[in-house]
Amino acid sequence: MVLPMTSTFRRSPTQQGPDLVARELLKALSLDTPYEFLTLVNIVQGNLRPKKLSTLYLENIQLRVYEKLQELVGKGLVEKTVTPTGKHYKGLPSLSSPRIEPAITSKR
Predict the structure, then answer these.
(1) Which candidate, 64, 56, 57, 28, places its Cα nearest to that of 43?
(2) In terms of Cα–Cα distance, which of 69, 92, 70 is closest to 79?
(3) Which of these, 27, 49, 62, 67, could form a disulfide with 54 (CB 3.0-4.6 Å)?
(4) Sequence-ordered list of residues with C-beta below 8 angstroms from that of 76, at least 6 positions apart, any chain
């Protein structure tokens, strides 16, 4: 038995649109304030709540924030400082370039 092929292709919800977790992370890091990792996660989750996207599991948000932070640190856009109290992340002035956000928030 051969089933007819449909012409509709559905993408999963995680593949649609811009990366909103990365966008909220960039907003938080654009301020001239160093943040600890969990503080950044709480800020991102709080900003996603009005958009009804905070239903993502906290672990997923933490993972996305961690991945993006490592990417931004690797590109030299975020400064990572290790202190006895923990790791602090601070956005550098180059992070506010208009070309940075589309490159960081677009999904692959």
Answers:
(1) 28
(2) 92
(3) 49
(4) 92, 94
Average confidence (pLDDT) over 27-44: 91
Does the model's pTM come out above 0.85? no
* DSSP secondary structure, 1-17, as one string: --PPPPS--PPPGGGSS
Q: Which residues does 12 contact at the CB level (< 8 Å), separation at least 6?
A: none
pLDDT digits (tens, 9 = 90+) for 56-105: 677 888 899 999 999 999 999 999 999 998 899 999 988 777 666 665 66
* pLDDT tens, residue by residue, 39-59: 999 999 888 877 666 566 778
Q: Single out the residue of 104, 108, 106 nearest to residue 30, CA to CA.
A: 104
Kindly write down the DSSP assignment for every residue of 42-83, as one continuous string: HHHHHHHGGGT-TTS-HHHHHHHHHHHHHHHHHTTSEEEEEE
Domains of the chain are 17-105 (1.10.10.10)
The residues with which 91 forms a beta bridge, in sequence order, are 78
